[in-house]
Amino acid sequence: MSLLDDYDALLIDLDGTIYRGTEVVPAAGPAVDAAHAAGTTVRFVTNNASRGPDEVAAHLVELGVHATSDEVSTSAQAAAKIVAGKLDAGATVLVVGAPALADELELVGLKTVRKDTDDVVAVVQGLSKDTSWWDLAEACVAIRRGALWVACNADATLPTERGLLPGLGSFVAALRTATDKEPIVAGKPMTPLLDEAARTAGSKHPLVIGDRLDTDIAGAVAAGMDSLFVLSGVSTARDLIAAAEDARPTYVAADVAAVTKDAAELRIDRDGDWRDAVVAALTHLGLEHEVA
């Protein structure tokens, strides 16, 4: 029995799991094709709020991964749902992030601006490579005045073909330092994004797949979902050995191709010592060199 037989939906991370920057993980396309062929619902679940579902799906197709916009769940969508649930329709929200984030907020009936005004009642922050000091300054003023602050994610880094670069969490840290406030976080490891992805998938037994223990896997644990940790992105086998209880996956594999493999071959034994169990699992998969 493969993982595709055991779960009714795959909630798959993108950065570090399906692609790294502009480079696709070679196993990604065939794995997604296998899921579609098996009738397993797929959701591409990303903490990145810089692109809308249409753009994400188009990018995946360009990389050779079959995807449609309704299979994409972004942290911008999750953040918009959180804010809409806390504010009146038509409320003014200061956006620090990409146009795609503003689009999601407007879709739920909110007004978006880029400069602080007296009627700004919330700040929503997402990743944009064009974010400047001036953008953070506007947000700082609003947050200090008492505006609700929602961050799409708190990922300190972003995996790219050039290595790890600053992620939204690095910008969130700057505002946290400047305001002494903490944002509500919509993306992984918080549960709103995964919960919404599972809901739209109509899933009762989803499998979360990701490369980061601190976001993808910790998010799965918090949401009560099983998870597959893949060694194609940020977190390493050594990180897995050192993982705290709240960031330990159900399965481990080299990459997302493992969805077609027997679940028993990928499972990490939880009954004994965690380090020994991880080493045994990696050795069984021929990945013992990852901890050498």
Describe the structure.
The chain is α/β, with parallel strands linked by helices. The protein folds into 2 domains: 3-47 and 189-291, Rossmann fold (3-Layer(aba) Sandwich), CATH 3.40.50; 75-185, HAD superfamily/HAD-like (Rossmann fold, 3-Layer(aba) Sandwich), CATH 3.40.50. It contains 12 helices and 15 strands. It has helices at 3-6, 28-38, 53-62, 75-86, 99-107, 133-145, 168-179, 192-201, 213-223, 237-241, 263-266, 274-284, and strands at 9-12, 19-20, 23-24, 41-46, 72-74, 92-96, 111-113, 120-125, 148-151, 157-160, 163-166, 184-185, 206-210, 226-230, 251-253. The strands form 4 sheets. The protein has a 6-stranded parallel sheet with strand order 5-4-1-13-14-15, sandwiched between helices. A 5-stranded parallel sheet has the order 7-6-8-9-12, with helices on both faces. A two-stranded antiparallel ribbon has the order 2-3. Strand 13 (206-210), helix 9 and strand 14 (226-230) form a beta-alpha-beta unit. Helix 4 (75-86) packs across helix 5 and helix 6 (133-145) crosses helix 7 (168-179). The model has no long low-confidence stretch (mean pLDDT 95).
Structural descriptors:
five-stranded parallel sheet, six-stranded parallel sheet, 2 domains, alpha/beta, globular, Rossmann fold, 292 residues
Radius of gyration: 19 Å
- CATH fold description of the largest domain: Rossmann fold
> Share of helix among residues?
25-40%
Quickly give the CATH architecture of the largest domain. 3-Layer(aba) Sandwich
Mean pLDDT: 95
Helix count from the secondary structure assignment = 12
How much of the polypeptide forms β-strand, as a percent range?
Answer: 15-25%
The H/E string reads HEEEHEHEHEHEEHEEEHEHEHEHEHH
The total domain count is 2
Which class of the largest domain in CATH terms?
Answer: Alpha Beta
Name the shape in a single word.
globular
- Low-pLDDT residue spans: none
Helix/strand class: alpha/beta
Query: Got a strand count?
Result: 15
Largest sheet, order of strands side by side? 5-4-1-13-14-15
Distance between the termini: 31 Å
Question: Looking at this structure, what is the CATH superfamily of the largest domain?
Answer: HAD superfamily/HAD-like
